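Exercise 7 asks you to align residues with tokens for two separate proteins.
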Amino acid sequence: MSMKLLSAPIRAINAFGTLLIEQVIVAGQLTVLGCQIIKWMFKGKRNWKNIVVQLNEIGVNSIPVIAICSMFVGMVLVVQIGKQFASISAVAFIGGTVGLSLTRELAPLITAVVIAGRNGSAMTAELGTMKVTEQIDALIALSVNPVSYLIIPRVIACAIMLPMLTIFSNIIGLVGGVAVAISQVGISSSVYFNSVVDNVTVTDFISGIIKSAIFGVIIGVVAAHKGLSCEGGAEGVGKATTGSVVMMITLLLIINYFLSSLFFTYQQGMG
């Protein structure tokens, strides 16, 4: 009986240890891939045609879904805080609160999550299909480095387009917020946008842009890692795609916390 009681904790410890080892291995693989990307970023030739294709796919084609998500995020923010602020005669702070929420946190994070689900999964599936059908091996046989030819254009496109989409998200979110502020709270657009200008600083705006660029690199590296490590045919591609989205969103949330803490500490020091 005592052995049975002891076996459950042992199994739990064993499972935890196995999971921890797996995560350490994955972290090591991501680090190695990141070093290879940095190496070939400066060493290899740029595939500009592929970069332009990825810029269009990640940036231009994502505008509609980013616009819808951002608009409703801004509208929901005003719905949540509008009446409460009005009840304490603080409607002059509604625009600033929405602006700070969007520029610091919501716009870069929502944009990154949408791109992770829309484009990150597609990149993983594309690279994974190339891996299981031995197209990656064919490139290597032709002396073409897959990191330089396939991965770097995607990472560059993510790092460039996410900040641009974040700026667009900020604008659309503020527009959605002012529409609800006028129709439901009863304040004017001038009061709303004056509050934004008074409360949102350049540092707040830049911190969100820096975040989004880092998020773009994370999405590109994770998608590449999951795609290149894919195996097992069509089933393996499906599992890799699902796993990449889960890993991307998890890393985005974790790294967002540390970046937010870093920027907040910096702003406090500047203040």
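Second protein for Exercise 7:
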Amino acid sequence: MSRLFIAADLDEMTREALSHLLGDLPGAHWTPPDQMHITLKFLGETPAAKMDALRHGLRRIEGKAFTVALKGLGVFPLRGDPETLWIGVHSQALISLRNRMESVLAQAGFAREHRKYHPHLSLARLGQGPVEWLADYLKSQAGISIVEAAIHSFTLFESERHAGGPIYSVIETFPLFGILDQGPEEEEF
């Protein structure tokens, strides 16, 4: 069994821009820029017997390259102790891609996600740092906006748990063809 997820990968320019957000926040375990991604679907533990159907299904998904806007910081969970610091991802094209993916994967025998999809990019796992510092950090970054990050493909990843954090390995990348759709349409988070 492999622990799998599907994500939109980021270009180097976007990773570089995001790396400037990785600052001094006690208790934060920052996501290394080379592992930053926008999760489209978490599959979890997947038996090897389902791998061919999964890859075949993902190869059938068509779409054009598009852009997303990255803006607005927040934390999960919304109530209780914060565990994850994220930046919002805004793009109707991304949501459309994810919806097509859900349909194709359901036909291949994978369970549909019943929770509403909230596109985001995880910046850090939060530890036991002082809550006031987190509030100050969120205030200092309130206007953060990285516009028009290009998405040219999505990738099937394997995630392996290690003491220092997960390590992601690419299984297969699926290109999006056509002319880049400019200007991410707004989608309320």
